[in-house]
Amino acid sequence: MESRNPAFRGNAFEQRAGGAGYGAPAYGSPGYGTQHQGGAGHPAPGYAPPGYAPPGYAPPDTRPMTMDDVVVRGFMTLVTLVLTAAAAWVLVPPGLAIPVLVVALIAQIGIWAFITFGRKANAPMVLTFAAVYGVVVGIISHTYNDLFHGVVFQAVIGTALAFAATLAVYALRIVRVTPKFAKFTMAAAVALISLMIINLLMNAFGSDEGLGIRDPGNPLAYVFSVVAILVGCFFLLLDFDSIEQGVRSGAPEKFAWYCAFGLVLALVWIYLEMLRLLSYFYGGRD
Predict the structure, then answer these.
(1) The pTM is what?
(2) How far apart are CA 87 and CA 142, in angstroms?
(3) Cβ(279)–Cβ(147) under 8 Å?
(4) Which residues partner with 64 through β-bridges?
(5) Which among 9, 65, 250, 262 has most CB atoms closer than 10 A?
(6) What is the pLDDT of residues 177-228, one digit of tens each?
(7) Residue 2 counted as domain residue
(8) Three-state SS string across the chain, please?
(9) Could you tell me which of 257, 228, 224 has the C-alpha nearest to residue 243?
(10) So what's the pLDDT on residue 40?
(11) Is residue 205 part of a domain?
């Protein structure tokens, strides 16, 4: 079954028998030596019930992914990020914050690209990404908390509430995750990131307010952050759909690392935008 989350397309779901891609039958479906051909009680040739495996038979190297796999790996990834964020908050002195942040950002982008385009989501890569991303989050969080005391705790609570609400929306099928919804989410994310880059360039070349999307005195900034948080929640919906489809179709166990990777990306996106939005209500500029 094809994942509707564009972040997962062409990744673990392609790791099927013989390297087949999405056009191949799903795990355990006809076409992989278990096709039912002779009616009831007549298994296909080559099929051996449990306990009657032919000589030389070896069990598969991996088992299907379960929901517990996703929960455990997602928890490990998030805890790694939180620990390194706390370490960066405590250990990085103010004078070195910007150089460390720049190095961590470059490393984070490199690892993200390797996982996303190199299709190499595994424990070492995902946990390394989480550790590096944690340094970025820790430094940014510390800076915000120095300027707006208490905003980090509020952002954490807001992110947790957003996650719970999105999970409830998905579980109750209030929003249907369709290919059209996935395309809309990707288009919205590209538009938001493009606006951020343009705004950053305008600020770099002398414009104080830029497009106004990051200016606390401009109502557009509030709208932009709210939209960005909603887009992060939409990505969570795509992640939940990918997880459900992966479990249902028998994706390999290692696909759980892709799921953990996607969940952490969406959660940090929501947290950083929540941090930005809440800071506007403190009446100061960052």
Answers:
(1) 0.77
(2) 11
(3) yes
(4) 252
(5) 65
(6) 999 999 999 999 999 999 999 988 988 887 777 788 888 888 999 999 999 9
(7) no
(8) CCCCCHHHCCCHHHCCHHHCCCCCCCCCCCCCCCCCCCCCCCCCCCCCCCCCCCCCCCCCCCCECCHHHHHHHHHHHHHHHHHHHHHHHHHCCHHHHHHHHHHHHHHHHHHHHHHHHHCCCCHHHHHHHHHHHHHHHHHHHHHHHHHCCCHHHHHHHHHHHHHHHHHHHHHCCCCCCCHHHHHHHHHHHHHHHHHHHHHHHHHHCCCCCCCCCCCCCCHHHHHHHHHHHHHHHHHHHHHHHHHHHHHHHCCECCHHHHHHHHHHHHHHHHHHHHHHHHHHCCCCCC
(9) 257
(10) 38
(11) yes
Domain that holds residue 101: 88-280
For a pLDDT cut of 70, what percent of the chain falls above it? 77
pLDDT greater than 80 at residue 265: yes
- Tell me which residue of 240, 268, 235 sits closest to 70, measured CA to CA: 240
pLDDT cut 90: percent of the chain above it? 61
Q: For 28-38, what is each residue's pLDDT tens digit?
A: 333 333 333 34
pLDDT of residue 7: 45
d(CA 139, CA 118): 28
| Identity of the residue numbered 190 | V
Residue 54 has pLDDT above 70, yes or no: no
Q: How many domains does the chain have?
A: 1
233 in Cβ contact with 225 (< 8 Å): no
> Residue 109 falls within a domain, yes or no?
yes
Q: Give the per-residue pLDDT at 61.
A: 58
